[in-house]
Amino acid sequence: MLQAECEAANVTVMTHCNVASVRQQQDFVVATGSGDFTAPVLIVATGGLSIPKMGASDFGYRLARQFGLRVRPTRAALVPFTFTGSVHEMTGRLSGVSTQASVQSGAASFVDDILFTHRGISGPAALQASSYWDPGQDLTIDLAPGLELPAELLHAKQTRPQALLRTLLAEQLPKSLVIELQRLFWPARNEQSIVEWPAAELHALANTISSWTVRPAATEGYRTAEVTLGGVDTDQLSSRTMECRQHPGLFFIGEVVDVTGHLGGFNFQWAWASGYAAGVAVGDKNEA
């Protein structure tokens, strides 16, 4: 459909056409390996740094700086977390296991699935939290979101006194995850029935599972990030047309701009909407 629309609008698509330089005389001049191209309008839609295997680069940011625009610091976002040490060993053993959880980074919290991987933690809740995480920060993970786990376990202590704690937890969580939590939090009580647990210790353990605090070593970076946080400062652009305030005729759209959305198609929508806004503005210029 895109190709058909381009053909209908007489758009020429050129591939393997490296840009050597961009300069502005009266018009913009783009020097490439296929010759120079001159036009009164230049729209920069070069994307961010995410997934370099697809050709992502910092070209758009360098171009913005060349024209004196501010560029906000960039980093990978909507990206899995990686760990070292015992947590890394644990996630490796759980690789492929998913469960619903709440993942909190700073003031931002997301309830959705998490996925354990051989490198760390992924899944929608973790990806969302990564956009709000800074290196050195802890994550707080609630493995029983929406469940008052302390109250549930204390109730089970009265109604199912002979049940093992791991049996009760396996009714809410994947069994393999419960085994890892047991290894991590109550290795010495693995065969004790819940009635043998003092109420205070049971309550404390339930709170630990509901607010498991971990510190990622890093994220997987731009290699697997779905988007790039940061980019061309929106204060430099018209919010209606995406045209640069300092340089009429110069537009920046899509991921190269400092706009980052949540999962769910918002980043696609931003790319299309900003592109549409610039396209309409260019059409109005041509008509004028």
Can you offer a commentary on this structure?
By secondary structure, the chain is an alpha+beta fold. It has two domains: 40-75 and 229-287, FAD/NAD(P)-binding domain, CATH 3.50.50; 81-219, Translation factors (Elongation Factor Tu (Ef-tu), domain 3). The protein has nine helices and 14 strands. The chain has helices at residues 2-8, 59-66, 85-93, 124-130, 149-159, 165-169, 175-185, 199-210, 266-287; strands at 19-24, 28-32, 35-39, 42-44, 71-77, 81-82, 98-105, 108-116, 120-122, 139-142, 212-214, 218-219, 227-232, 250-252. A seven-stranded antiparallel β-sheet has the order 11-10-7-8-9-6-12. A hairpin with a 3-residue loop joins β8 (108-116) and β9. The relative contact order is 0.17.
What is the domain total for the residues? 2
Radius of gyration: 26 Å
**How many E strands?**
14
Q: Let me know the largest β-sheet.
A: 7 strands, antiparallel
Looking at CATH, the homologous superfamily of the largest domain is Translation factors
* Mean residue pLDDT: 94
Q: Which CATH architecture of the largest domain would you pick?
A: Beta Barrel
Element-by-element helix/strand order: HEEEEHEEHEEEHEHHHHEEEEH
Distance between the termini: 29 Å
User: Could you give the order of strands across the largest sheet?
Assistant: 11-10-7-8-9-6-12
Keywords for this entry:
288 residues; alpha+beta; FAD/NAD(P)-binding domain; Elongation Factor Tu (Ef-tu), domain 3; 2 domains; seven-stranded antiparallel beta sheet; three-stranded antiparallel beta sheet; elongated
